[in-house]
Amino acid sequence: MPLDATRFADTARPLVLARGFAAPGIPVARPRLPAAEAILPYLREIDANHWYANHGLLWLRLQSRLAAHWGMGGEEVALTANATLALALALRATGVAPGRKCLMPAWTFVATAGAAREAGLVPHFADVDAGTWALDPEAVEARPDLCEMGAILVVAPFGRPLDLARWDALSARTGVPVIVDAAAAFDALRAGGAMVVGRAPVIVSLHATKSFGIGEGGAVLSRDAAWLERLRRLSNFGFLGSRDAVLAGTNAKMSEYAAAIGLAAMDAWPETRAGWLSITRHYAAALQDAGLKASPGFGEDWVSATLSVLWSSDAAAGAAALAREGIGTLRWWGDGCHANPAYADCPRDPLPVTEAIARRALGLPFWRDMTATQVDYICGVARRAAGG
Ligand SMILES: *Cc1c(COP(=O)(O)O)cnc(C)c1O
């Protein structure tokens, strides 16, 4: 992490833009993707190849490099335009009949529910476990209504690894397919990492706000070649190897230009990851000193691009207190997915844990080249604001 000589606190005051509208001095996120110079050699290859989309050479190379990163075979990864479409296509490739329910945590990003809707399913929101912020496989298996679920979408919250063997065992015992929204878990899924891909397909986002960002992009990891071929077909108008649409597909392909950014991002990943790890460790220690509790697993052996803490009271009060000191915050998942107007009519369980987390979870500024001074300033302000 860069050490800066400036006293950040002096520059952290909100910039007053007009009529009292203040922009935070420290934004909640500041994504940094590969610079133009790093992408340029790959763009020149595209120029030379005259191949711009539809499974080009760069696309193929990125697929193999990502597969190697995740310890998967080259044919066990499919690239897509983004993770949301990949989730919807994963549900379709699994053959879940439209109109059926899709069990998912209420504590997730709206994309999880949006993908289920896109696949013609009805989201059913379940509560999460307070210790993991994720669905608890035991609680799910004990549900008397499990047979009503066409699929289960489990979410790795903010990139925290899940024990997928437990979900595979549940799926094998109950016959209900499981699909994993691991959008933010690029790093936890690395070869030798804590999250090991088994039978359930796993979807990763390569969005700019994730730890490995290429702008827009997604990837699907699966050990089932026939299933992944179906997903590839669905993402390419239903075509594969011929121009006969054997499935009613859509277009969810990644272009060569996105793959070019992806290859440059892969070149930089060791350094990028080191940056995330360094800021994560510094933050984890500073939060502990400040008496603030981070989301489960933060500071363990994986990185992600968001940091949420459990504020001592309402997150809205914390957000207001930090804004007064020029510190940007974001309630990443708001009041929970179920609370969004689009999903107000969806079936749900009682959600006391989700509601308790949502009320207090507050995203703090977090990006990989922020400075130790900034982190210490933020944690100091937060400790005082929280009355510590
Ligand atoms: C980021 C995210 C998504 C969406 O990924 P996109 O690539 O932007 O479509 C879905 N689910 C979760 C849990 C996410 O964090």
Automatic annotation (TrEMBL):
Pfam families: DegT_DnrJ_EryC1. The modification N6-(pyridoxal phosphate)lysine is found at K210. SUPFAM superfamilies: PLP-dependent transferases (SSF53383). The active site is at K210. InterPro entries: DegT/StrS_aminotransferase, PyrdxlP-dep_Trfase, PyrdxlP-dep_Trfase_major. Belongs to the DegT/DnrJ/EryC1 family. This is Aminotransferase class I/II-fold pyridoxal phosphate-dependent enzyme. It comes from Roseomonas indoligenes.
